[in-house]
Amino acid sequence: MPGCSSHPATSRRPDDANHTIKSLTQCLRGYRAAGLRVGLVPTMGFLHGGHRALINGSVARCDITVASIFVNSTQFGPNEVLDCYPRALEQDHELCRTAGVSLIFVPDASEIYPPGFQTTVEPGPVAEPLCGAERPGHFRGVATVVTKLFNIVQPDLAFFGQKDFKQCAVIRQMVRDLNLPIEIVTVPTVRKPDGLALSSRNSYLSPVDRQRARCLSQGLLAAQAAYGEGERDSERLIAMARAHMSEVDQLQYLQLVDARALEPVPGLVDRPTALCVAAYVGTTRLIDNVLLDIASNSRADLVLAQHRAAS
Ligand code: AMP
C-alpha cells in the first residue's frame, strides 16, 4: 500500500495511513495524472464485513481505492457520546490492507474542522422523513463531511451502504443538486448469518440484547418474503414486520416509504419501496431496511446467500 504520510507511527495510528490532506492529495495528484480511476469509501472506522463490501465494490471498479476513517463529531446528537464510539485503528488498517485499499485517510478532527470553520451543507426536505426528526442536525453533519471528503479526494466513484438508506438518499440528492461530478454507488447490506445487519454499533449490545436485536431483521425479511410471494398491502406488510419486533425497547419508526422520494406509501405497494426501521435494543439505537422491489430483492438475496456461504 503506498503510504505518503511523514507522520510518526503510533500504536493508534498506523504509519502508512495519511493523516493530512496535504499528504493524501500529493499521492492522489500522481494517480490522477496517470489517468487512474479513484474510488472513495467514507467510514467512521471499527470496520466490519459491511465496510469490506464497500471496499470490494470500489476495488472491482476503480484503480485506486481511498478509505477514509473519521469519527465525525458534527453528525452526533446531544445524547450521543462521541468518545464512546468504538475504535480499532490497527484492525481497521489490517482489513483495508487485505481488502486492497490503496490509501487510508485518517485525519484528526482539527484537519477536517480547523479553528474558524463555519460553513455547512444543509440538506433539503429529503433529510426530514424517517430519522430526521429524531436526529436534528445529523444529516447536516453527514452532508458537510461527505462534501469535504469529496472535495479533498475528488473521487470518480463513492461507495455507500444501503444499510444507511436515508443517508444514501441525502447524498444522492446533494450530488444532483450541487452538480458534484461523482457517481454514487449503493452497496447491499451485509448481514450476520442470523440476519442482523453488520454495524459498528452492534459492539454496544450485551449478549442478551444481541439475541433480541435479531428480531429487527427477522421482521423486515419476513415482510420482504411476503412481498416476494405477492402481498402488496402496505399495512399488512408493516404489521407482519412489527409482529416480530415486540422484543425491542423502543420502536422509533417502522415505515414503508417510496424508495426515491422517501414518502410513506399507504395502501397498495405499486412502486419500488423500502421498509425501514429504527429501534432501541437496550440503550443501543439500531437501524435496518429492506427493499421491496422484485429486481433488487433477487440481488439482495444473492448477496445474502453469498455472505452465508462465505461465513
Ligand atoms: P459507518 O462507518 O457506520 O459510518 O459506515 C460507513 C459506510 O459503511 C456507510 O456507507 C454505511 O452505510 C456502510 N455500512 C455500514 N454497515 C453496513 C452493512 N452492514 N452493509 C453494507 N454497508 C454498510
One letter per element, helices H and strands E, the order comes to: HEHEHEHHEHEHHHEEEH
Helical stretch count?
10
Query: What is the alpha-carbon Rg in Å?
Result: 19 Å
Separation, N- and C-terminal Cα atoms: 27 Å
CATH architecture term of the largest domain: 3-Layer(aba) Sandwich
Number of DSSP E strands: 8
| General shape | globular
Structural class of the secondary elements?
alpha/beta
> Which range does the strand content fall in?
15-25%
CATH superfamily of the largest domain: HUPs
Q: TL;DR?
A:
By secondary structure, the protein is α/β, with parallel strands linked by helices. It has 10 helices and 8 strands.
Explain what the structure shows.
The chain contains ten helices and eight strands. The protein is globular. It has two domains: 8-187, HUPs (Rossmann fold, 3-Layer(aba) Sandwich), CATH 3.40.50; 200-310, 2-Layer Sandwich (Pantoate--beta-alanine Ligase, Chain: A,domain 2). The chain has 311 residues and is of the alpha/beta class. Helix 5 packs across helix 6.
Write the layout of secondary structure elements.
Layout: H1 21-33, E1 38-43, H2 49-61, E2 64-69, H3 89-99, E3 103-105, H4 109-112, H5 138-153, E4 157-161, H6 165-177, E5 183-187, H7 207-212, H8 214-228, H9 234-242, E6 250-258, E7 273-281, E8 284-292, H10 294-310
Parallel strand pairs: 1-2, 1-4, 2-3, 4-5
Antiparallel strand pairs: 6-7, 7-8
The structure holds adenosine monophosphate.
Adenosine monophosphate binds at residues 43-44, 50-51, 53-54, 160-161, 163-164, 187, 189-190, 197-200.
